[in-house]
Design goal:
The structure is a single chain. Helix content is about 50%, strand content about 10%. With about 300 residues, the chain is α/β, with parallel strands linked by helices. It has a domain at about 10-220: TIM Barrel (Alpha-Beta Barrel). Helix 1 crosses helix 2, helix 2 runs parallel beside helix 3 (about 90-100) and helix 3 runs parallel beside helix 4. The model has no long low-confidence stretch (mean pLDDT about 95).
Amino acid sequence: MSTTTEPFGRTVCAMVTPFTADGALDLDGAQRLAGHLVTEGGCDGLVLSGTTGESPTTTDAEKTALVTAVAEAVGDRARITAGVGSADTRHTVELARAAERAGAHGVLVVTPYYSRPPQEDIAEHFRTVADAVGVPVMLYDIPGRTGTRIEPDTMLRLAEHPRIAGVKDCAYDLLGSSKVIAATGLAYYSGCEELSLPLRAVGGTGYVSTVANVAGPALAAVLDAFDRGENAEATRLHQRVLPLVEQMMGAGLPGTVTAKALLGALGLPAGPVRAPLRAATQERTEALLEAYEEATGADGR
């Protein structure tokens, strides 16, 4: 039973966290960027304080303030999902409850990292967080960063929880994802832009994208064409955006760095990255701009 619901949106941006020139949280910039992404950027959902949002280097208070500010800026025009993952179940519960109080429509919970717990411990971690809040939970499966996969069989068990509603899928296992989509009502979101179209084709809901910070309409156009039954056009649009995806996500720099470089070059709120990350060079920024222009065209499509 594949889902037709979109509990976290469909075209979702993993939004950067804007900072001021001196590295402080820029709430005004966050509100302006969120408004742009929803109004002009093709996004019906925003994920805050994820990997792209530099969650490892923002404080709990900053994370909560960010949710409050963005919720105020976009209201009900987009679904706001707050990243609340940590390596500590108790801390994750505290972050999830704070995000819900601040106005988040859902929470994103990553697999506990570094300690590499076994599958049943991972499942109990997610259930504990889901039991603690009244909003939908999106599981974040990214073993390349956490060191541990949420195995498909574990996903099948977790899907029985009434508030575990979706998955941000960065496992690079289309077979496993297809199995879970076919057997559950979990809303699957591609966390890897190159797989957004393939995942949609096997019943996925949409994407959670770093590239959407700068090219949301181009990414949304791929799914729109597919949903209209225009498969050849969807493939063409998908192929058109791939060089930008590669420049931003697969050429040696973290997506946070490349997204902020492009946003800054385009005159949109972003600011610096926090250490240990470092800004992209001017040469790299120029290459990103070239790929951006080729992917989006004059009309943003």
